[in-house]
Amino acid sequence: MADDPRSLARTERGDFLFAVKEYGDGTPFIAAEPRRLTTTLIGGDAFLAFDLNPGVKMAQAQSIAEYLNKNISSVAFTVFGTHPMFKAIPPKG
User: Fold this and answer.
1) Which of 19, 51, 15, 10 is nearest to 36 (CA)?
2) Residue 47 has pLDDT above 80, yes or no
3) In angstroms, rounded to a whole number, what is the distance separating the alpha carbons of residues 76 and 12?
4) Does 70 or 47 have the greater pLDDT score?
5) Side-chain half-sphere CA neighbours of 57 within 13 A
6) pLDDT above 70 covers what percent of the chain?
7) Is residue 18 over pLDDT 90?
8) Strand, coil or helix: what is 65?
9) What's the confidence (pLDDT) of residue 85?
10) Residue 48 burial (CB < 10 Å; 0-12/13-18/19+)?
11) What whole-number distance in Å separates Cα of residue 47 and Cα of residue 59?
């Protein structure tokens, strides 16, 4: 099915370290920082973060980050042919 945009899907994986950061108001969040600068998943000019539920304290955020670091081996991002970013990702090969 060559016309199916899913047939043009491109998946990138990256190895990330989950670290606790704070917004300006002191609200904690989890940042996914590339372990290697060579990851193409988000590159060096982007940022991936996870906002936590209201009321999560720094100690809880640290526990969440530790859990993620122990249990997540990589983060994958899949772009389908219909997504505007698809044209920005060069084909492999």
Assistant:
1) 15
2) no
3) 6
4) 70
5) 2
6) 70
7) yes
8) helix
9) 61
10) middle
11) 23
Residue corresponding to tokens 């193409």 = 40
> Domain extents for the chain?
5-86
Q: Which residue has the higher pLDDT, 80 or 41?
A: 80
pLDDT range class, residue 58, cuts 50, 70, 90: very high
Helices vs. strands in the chain: H and E counts, helices first:
1, 5
DSSP E strands in the chain: the ranges are 10-14, 16-22, 28-34, 48-51, 75-79
Residue 11 neighbours by CB under 8 Å, 6+ apart: 76, 77, 78, 79
pTM over 0.85: no
- What CA–CA distance (Å, rounded) separates 61 from 29? 7
| CA 2 vs CA 10, 30, 63, 77: distances in Å | 15, 39, 45, 22
